[in-house]
Amino acid sequence: MAKKKEVTIEERLRALYDLQLIDSRIDEIRNVRGELPLEVRDLEDEVAGLNIRLEKLITSLEAIDTDIADKKNLIEESKNLIKKYSEQQKNVRNNREFNSLTKEVEFQELEIELAEKHIREFKVQIEQKKEVISETKDRLKQRQDHLKHKKDELDAILSETEKEEQALITKSEDYKKDIEPRLVAAYIRIRKNVKNGLAVVPIERGAAGGSFFTIPPQVQVEIAARKKIITDEHSGRILVDPVLAEEQKTKMEKIFSKL
Q1: Residue 1: is its pLDDT beyond 50?
Q2: Beta-carbon neighbour count of residue 85 at 10 Å?
Q3: What sign does the CA torsion over 242, 243, 247, 253 have?
Q4: Which residues of 2-41 are buried (b: 16+ CB within 10 A; e: fewer)?
Q5: Which of 130, 131, 156, 211 has the highest CB neighbour count under 10 A?
Q6: Alpha-carbon distance 87 to 84, whole Å?
Q7: What is the CA 193 to chain-centroid distance, rounded?
Q8: Which domains does the chain have, with CATH numbers?
C-alpha cells in the first residue's frame, strides 16, 4: 500500500489562501445584495400587517352596517307598537288602561329616539373608519409598489450571482476537505473574529494586509521561507508572503472566470 504523501507547510498555506480567496468572493457577492433581503422581508411583513388591518376595518364596517340595520328594524317595530297602542287607546274602558297604554307609547318613542341616536353615532363611526380604510389602502399601495421594486432589484442581483455563489460554496467545501481539520477550524475561528472575514492575508508594505502594525524583518523572512505557519501577533490572522499570494490570486481568477 502506497504511503500517503505528506503535505508541506507551503502547500497548506497555498490551500488556506485559496480557501480565503473563495470565501472572500462569496462575501463580495453577498455584500452586493447588502440589506436587500432584509428590506424585502420587512416590507413583506409590513404589507401582510396592513392587509390584516384592512380586513379588520372592513369587517368592523360590516358589523356597524348590521347594527344600523338592527336599529332600523327596532324603530319599525316601535312604530308599529305605537300605532297598535294608539288604536287600543280608542277602545279603553277606564283611565288606568289609557294611562298604561300612554306609557307604552312613550316608552316606544324613547326607544325610537335612542335607536336614532345610535344610528347617528354609527354613521359618524362609519365615516371615520372609511377615512382610516382609505389611508390604509393608500399606504398599502405604496408599500406594495415599494416591495415590488425591491423584489425586482433583488431578483436581478440573484439571477446574476446565485449560480456563481452556489458554485463557490461547493468549491469552498471541497477545498476544506483537502485541509487538515484543525487548520480549517482555526481558519473559521479567525475569520469570525476579524474584520471583513479575512483570516489569511499577505504582507503589504511590511505589514499584514489591512493592518498598520509593521512586521519585523526577521519575521517577514520566516514567512517568505514558508517553513511554518505564522500568525499576526496583533490580529491573529495567518500570514502569507506577497509572491505566494499573487500566484494563488492568478490561479483562482482563472477558476472564478469559468464559474
Answers
A1: no
A2: 18
A3: positive
A4: eeeeeeeeeebbbbbbbbbbbbbbbeebeeebeebeebbe
A5: 211
A6: 5
A7: 25
A8: 9-32+180-258 (no CATH), 36-162 (1.10.287.1490)
Q: Is the pLDDT of residue 182 over 90?
A: yes
**Do the beta carbons of residue 154 and residue 41 sit within 8 Å?**
no
> What burial class does residue 84 get, using C-beta atoms within 10 Å of its C-beta: 0-12 exposed, 13-18 middle, 19+ buried?
middle
pTM of the model: 0.63
Please tell me the distance from the alpha carbon of residue 181 to that of residue 7, in angstroms, as a whole number: 13
Tracing cell 362609519 back to the chain, one arrives at 126
Residue 6: the pLDDT is 79
Distance CA 96, CA 83 (A): 19
pLDDT confidence of residue 219 = 94
CA dihedral 171, 172, 175, 179 (to 10 degrees): -170
